[in-house]
Amino acid sequence: MVKRFLVLLVLIFFTIMIIPLITDVQPQTELNSLAKKYVKDGSDELGGANLVTSVIVTYRGLDTLGEVAVLFIATAGVGFLLRRRKKALSKPVKKRESSEILQTGTLLLMPLILLFGVYIFLHGHLTPGGGFQGGVVIASGILLSFLARPQSELNHTVLHTIESLSGAFYIVIGVLGIYLAAGFLDNRIMPLGDFGRLFSAGAIPIIYSLIGLKVGSELVGILDSMQRSEL
Amino acid sequence: MTLVTIIGIALVILGLWGMLTQRNLIKIIIGFSIIDTGIHLIIVSIGYIKGKTAPIIDSPALKADAVNKVVDPIPSALVLTAIVIGLAVTALMLVYAVNLYQRKQSLDINDFKELKW
Asked: CATH number of the domain at B3-111, out of 1.10.287.3510, 3.30.240.20, 3.10.105.10, 3.50.30.60?
């Protein structure tokens, strides 16, 4: 009973604390000065049609690097906590075969899903989307194949190679920006190209493709650890 | 004050209630996810400007007058970051739940008294 009362108290205090957010905050009517600069320069200076991508990949590129690092640490943590015990290794668990519909459907859908993921991260500077979204779509395609063939084993060498290489090239491109352009992760190390075309916005498509591959392989790693673990 | 802000705050409170009252570890994690979603909605609603379009310049008319026609791109970028981090944290929490289940064959929070005082 005391516990319920305390919970209620916490919720009431939290609500009172957060009420100013509803009553006092006036909705914006125009962009603040920083957003104005990003909107103006994001398209003229960096050549990206999707301004959110310009902010994420270039203006706040260091944040995104940190984000990728957090995702990497989480993946490492998942892999560490779900590592296969010696005892479990000796007797492989018998998993139920998946249904005919799922197996046939996977053959049709998986290539399309992977292609869609690649499309999303290649066009991150033009359309809503980008490396993170594309990576998640790719991971969902791999998840479908896990469901269709529960016995299959993933090639971990390929996965780890993709992950490490994309991470390393991401840093290399960032450092190149210091020498060839204005700063770390500057996208103007390559010609900006025609605004709104696939080959435009300098290095943004390349950086976002690397992020997409890295996020995709990391999420596949998480799914793989979870699939192989048993209770 | 917009409808989205209010929904976001309601989700945060609902998630907090779930985290405080539920005993099942999986349900606590679901509560965390609901808080996460609510915070995303609040951040996005702060950046929204009434009557303006998404910050994606897909036509010459928009490019000419982008500053007066698009919403703030920074909250959207922050939410994108927050979603990915939330996903990673949720995966890590679920794996902790799996590990705890392997130890005690139970997901009830009351069965784990080691750190209780």
From this structure: 1.10.287.3510
